[in-house]
Design a protein that fits this description.
heterodimer, A: about 325 residues, alpha/beta, Rossmann fold, Alpha-Beta Plaits, 2 domains, six-stranded mixed sheet, elongated, B: about 325 residues, mainly alpha, two-stranded antiparallel ribbon, about 0% strand, binds adenosine-5'-diphosphate, binds magnesium ion
Chain lengths: ~325, ~325
Amino acid sequence: MSGKDEVIVAEGLTKVFNKSLVAVNHVSFSVKSGEIFGFLGPNGAGKTTTISMLITILRPTEGRASVLGYDILKEANEVRKVIGVVPQEYTADEDLTGYENIMLCADMYGIPREVAKKRALELLELVELTRFKDKRVETYSGGMRRRLELACGLINRPRVLFLDEPTLGLDVQTRTATWNYIRKLKEEYGMTIFMTTHYLEEADALCDRIAIIDHGKIIAIGAPKDLKESLGGDIITISIKEGADVSNLIRSVENVKDVRNENGSYRIKAEHGEVTAPLIIEALRKNGYTVTKLSLTEPTLNEVYLEYTGRALRDSEETKEAIMMQRMILRRARGG
Amino acid sequence: MSGMNGTNEYYPSLLRGLWALTVRELKKWLKDPVMVLMLVLQPLIWMGLLGKSMNINAIFSAGSLSGVTIPDIYIPGSYLIPPVSGTLVIPGSFITQQLQQAFSDLGAKVMQSAFGVTDYFSYMAVGIVSMIVVMTTMFSGMSIVWDRRLGFLNKVMSTPVSRAAIIFSKVLNGTLRAIFQATVILALAYLLGLQLSPTFTLLNLLGIYAAIFLVGAGLSSVFIAFSLRSTRMERPMQIINLVMMPLMFASNIFFPISLMPEWMQVVAKVNPLSHLTDAVRQLTILPLDGTALMLDFVYLGIFASVLSAIGIVLSWKYLTK
Ligand SMILES: Nc1ncnc2c1ncn2[C@@H]1O[C@H](COP(=O)(O)OP(=O)(O)O)[C@@H](O)[C@H]1O
Ligand SMILES: [Mg+2]
């Protein structure tokens, strides 16, 4: 089986809904103790479904998984005791105060009242909600709700924390603040964190290792840096004044691995971009072409995603829709 | 912050989880001032509209003959035995008076034999208790739809709290609300003129609560299972609309079963609301009939056990899917 420092192990985990929709398709991975492991993928990729199986609220159709050595099916209750969960939705009760919500979570774990009170106050301090603890959650902003969810997920002092889209719908500033809380949990308390996101920057900034998931399948797995390096170099984009196709000329330059002509702008993949770019310009000039534009970028996870799926991982539209959904549900909940 | 790393040595007992989840709902309920207002207003309106407007007593009262004018009756003396001379006059007003008296006595007798009490308002007010019990238990079961939608249910399920506690808390919440409301209604009805039978004592309230608990538990378990499993939000609401009327009218809530058409009597007799209503009447306005009361409780006990079992099995399957 797994080594001692492997906190989560999944083997061929699969979920099929309604006998036909394969939401998660034979995913296998392991998460090491003390690392932040991220599932990166677009909406509908199967991230929430995977988390739901790991936190024992959804039965896998096939495959197996364990958390801290406990089987998610046979020892579900042991798993539940040692994990903390921060769901994608705002689940706190609108009509109760922040403090009451945390205490309710504590009750779910059977934490004695006195101990729970102390922990709740500590956690409220940690997520900077002490000032608002006796206010109804109804009055909280999105960022405050997220933080409250986080505090609830920590009440049982979990050894593994599951975060489903922890910054969905938050503005940039609040998002960065949330990242800091998450980093703090890892660094100060050595917590193992499994999170999902569809924000490239988030996966890049926060995760030690990521699995890129698309249509229920893991298509790449590794540290963000390794994944980017595995693409084999930097991206150079060049435009020339003349109309001719110079792809072959560029391809003959040393270190160039791939050239794509995208409407007169050349997307070049090359090792050691900062050395190769001048060589390309040199070669073009020698042949009488004039370079009008040049840019050099190190590859981002978007390039990685593009490489494997042939599509860009675009945040904009899907995200807006998801946020709208969330807002609508909240409003309806309030409206009665 | 100290020792975030320490392992969690605690484990929730069924009762702790059950209590916490139930208190959550009751708190939400009591925190809502509109809810409390509705609690008083709704039965008041119903009792006012139904109990006082369907004034069956008035039909049989002397007043309903007031429009009738009976002419004086002249009987020639020769028709009488033994014959007398002249004419005998029976004034119409005298007949009216006699008729009114007879009608009124008859009315009281009819009421007594059909409804068991002489005033319809008392009969009706107790029926409203049953109505509220159904409405409240069903509506509070519906909150599980929101819990599921908003992710609360999933979050709770990822904790070690017992799945049974999750289901029971909903049942308990519904029945406690119903009991609370029933108390308010009975108190209001008493103020509005409900006539308690001499056999009534405050201890009878416990019997009433037990009967409500049985019906509430049975109805809400099934309803919760249904709400949990329905994919659309409006389903539970549709079901309430569908079953409310038959449950209410094919029962003794408004009208005695013995006077219904035969086919309806069959329905009304298996309708748990008939037994609930009868039990509550026995314990409040009727002279207590021990055997009838016991039969009601036996029936309600069986009803509650069977429906709870079905509901809990169905919910359990859903929660552990
Ligand atoms: N309970 C469910 N029943 C049927 N289909 C579902 C259910 N939950 C998720 N799905 C489907 O499974 C796929 C993966 O969904 P999900 O895991 O929520 O994706 P993500 O979290 O990555 O956005 C989607 O196509 C979604 O519609
Ligand atoms: Mg999701």
